[in-house]
Structure formats: C-alpha cells, structure tokens
Amino acid sequence: MPATTLKLDFGTVPDYFQFIEDDEPLWGSIVGSHMWRMQRPDSDFDGYIGYAANPRKILLGRIKGGGINTVLGNWDVMSTEISAIIQQLLKGNINHILGVLSPINPWPPTKWLAELQDIVTHNFARSIYHSVNGLARHNLHLYFEKDIKKDVNKEKKLNQIGRVVQFGISVLVGGRVRFQRWSGTHEELIASIKELEEAHNRSYLPERVPEAPFVQFLLDLRREQMKKFLGEENGFPKQDIP
After folding, report:
1. Quick one: 145 exposed, middle or buried, by C-beta within 10 A (0-12, 13-18, 19+)?
2. Which is nearest to 48 in space by CA: 73, 74, 71, 76?
3. Would the pTM count as exceeding 0.85?
4. Rounded CA gap, 141 and 68, in Å?
5. Distance from first CA to last CA of the chain, Å, rounded?
6. Confidence class for position 2, pLDDT limits 50, 70, 90
7. Which of 1, 114, 168, 213 is the most buried (most CB within 10 A)?
8. Domains of the chain: which residue ranges?
9. Dihedral sign, CA of 98, 104, 105, 111?
10. What value does the CA radius of gyration of the chain take, rounded to a whole number of Å?
C-alpha cells in the first residue's frame, strides 16, 4: 500500500523538527477525524510522526521508549520512535496501525513508510481484535456506562468508536483497509461490537503478527542509518564516530 497524499487545507504545517529535534523523520500522517473525512470546520489536526532516533542516541542507549505528545496551535501531534512503533504493531495496536496506514501525509514521507505499510497490510493478525475491542469497551464504559465526563459530545464519541470498530471488522473479515465514515446510535454501536467479535471468531487471519518482516525492516533501517552516520563505504568506516 503506497503512501498517498490527499488534498486538505492544513493551513501552516509545523516543521518536523519542532517535534523530533535532531532525530530522523520517517513520515508524518494525519489521524483523527480528518483521516475518516468526518472533521468539522473547527476540528484540530491530529498528527502521528514516526521517526528514527539519531544513531548517537542509539549507541548511548538514549532512545525514548514511548510517544511524545506535543500541541502547537491547532495541531496535536504524537511522535514515536520507530522501534516502539514496531513493538506496538506486533501487538496489533490499532492506534499505531492507523498512524502507519493513514492516507493523509502533510509531511513528505520517506521510502520507509511505503515499505512499512506493505509489511503491515500483508501481515494482519487476529490480535487486532483485542486492541479494537478494548478501545471500544473502555470508551463505552468511560463515557456512557459510568458517564464520568458529562461535557463530552456523546454523538461524536459514538462515531469515533464506531469507525474504528468498522475498520477492525474489515481487517478481520477480509484483510482490507477501509477508512469508512460511521454514524449511529448507542444500540447500533453495541451491535457493531458484537459483529466485531463474530468477525474475530471466523477470521482466517493468523493469531499473531509474525515478527520476521518487522525485524528485517528495522534491521535494514538501522543499517542504513549507521552507514550514513559513520560515512561507511564498501563496508568500512571512513572516519571515527563524530
């Protein structure tokens, strides 16, 4: 699945390096309502940046483990190092799957995005169910059963949950990536979650995501990073570590 840039009016797109400092950007995508074509005129932009840590940080063991959230104006961006992204993809984490597969790339992607998208779409597993189901049931419990946050737009929240559930169903049933709009009632969402469970039960997908293609991807990326870092030519470094 190649990276595709869809036309949206982003206004002024923040520079990559306001989020990742001296690390190497791999891609930056738009998630949230814009990805599903369900945004309102006042919707913020939810960004997802995948980056590769500076080789010096790798050598010194200074890679940040989790994602870093940064808010700049109407941009809310989560930046995550590629090794942490790979770990979550292997678990079937729906948020990271969407961040990789989003078709909206306001920042120019590198070749690594297309390669990773291809790996993800050819290695879906039934484990995606646990992430989607967990997200859906947690949000239902939080916003509808316990009604903790009473100021939340309930219709919007239903739509947010429903479209992710439909994405999960599409993957489980046919291994297809579909960013479908979803709008429905609480009862219709409950029915969709039941449909998700049924899709999981009858899915032909393997139970777990295979590690090998993701490990190879990370190895290829790190090898290229280190070659650039060392100024390597024909397998031998031309200079000491800068």
Report:
1. exposed
2. 76
3. yes
4. 26
5. 37
6. very low
7. 168
8. 1-122, 128-202
9. positive
10. 19
